[in-house]
Structures are given as C-alpha cells and as structure tokens.
Amino acid sequence: MNLPNKLTLGRIILxxxxxxxxxxxxxxxxxxxxxxxxxxxxxxxLDGKIARKQNLVTDFGKFADPLADKILVLATLLCFVQNGxxxxxxxxxxxxxxxxxxxxxxxxxxxxxxxxxxIWGKAKTVSQMIAVIAILVMQFVLDLANDTNxxxxxxxxxxxxxxxxxxxxxxxxxxxxxxxxxxxYIVQNRRFISET
Length: 196
What we know:
This protein is mostly helical. The chain has helices at residues 3-23, 29-53, 59-83, 88-110, 119-148, 153-188, 190-194. It has a domain at 59-194.
C-alpha cells in the first residue's frame, strides 16, 4: 500500500478518536477534537498531492479518499447534532447527498469505472472542513471562557448565541455546496442511473 493510501486509511482510523473526543465530557474535549480533526484534514490535503506528484494515483485512492472524507465529516456533524452545535436538518440533507453520490459511485464501480471527485465535491469538502474547524474553535473558546471565568455570565451568554449563529451559518453554507455538488455529480453521471 502506497503512502497516499496509508494517509487515507489513517484519516478513517482517526474517526473513532474524533467521536470519543466530542461525546465524552472531559476538560477541553473540544480542543482535543479540533486537533484530531485538523490532523485528519492535513492528511486529506497531503494524500492527493503526494499521489499526483509521485504518480501514485490508484483506483483504491480515487474511491477511498472521498469515502474517508465523508466518514470523517458525517461522524463529526452527527456528534455536533448530539451536542447541539448544529441543526439536524442540514445534516440530513448532507447525508442524503452523500448516500446518493456514493450509490452512483458503487454502480459505476460495478461497471468497472471509478469516478473521481470533481472540483465541486472538493469545494464541498473544504467548506465542511472550514465549518467544522470554526465550530470547534468557537466551542473551545466557550469552554475556556466557562472554565476560567474571565468574562461575565452575560457576556458568555452573548458569545454563546453569536457563536451558535455563526456555526449554523457555516454549516448551512457547506450544505448548499453539498447540494450543488450533488446535483452536478448526478447530472454528470446520470448514465449510470439510466443503465440500472
């Protein structure tokens, strides 16, 4: 197995740690989740660059890389819903998009074709990663403010509301990218739907 594929598998392995950091209440768990997510995001940047630069692009990598992104982001978003960091409707829309696109990819794979992610899918992933990192940073700031009592309860409440709104906006922006990329993906690969 080449290095880019190992990085992709490493991203998948980080998912349970990410989930544990988000769902287990311990001091600065959001900071730990942020570090894990950032490390996973860096592997996403590196695996594709290394694969293209060193001519290590494989069918496994074309399929597993976007799948690893989906597993990481969806697991994180579901934890965000559990923790009250984002709206479940946005996550349901993203889940629907991901199942639809993955279904087409599986149909294509059964025909011997591997469909790589397009630029819109990459924009969707980047917007999701930005949203997740921003929300984790804001939650860490709230944790820090709460644990250190540096600001008044009223200021903390205002900050909590502002961060909540900002997080929702970022998640919905990434959801719009998910819908756009999903529609484009389905239109570009509709032949696989019509052949079934």
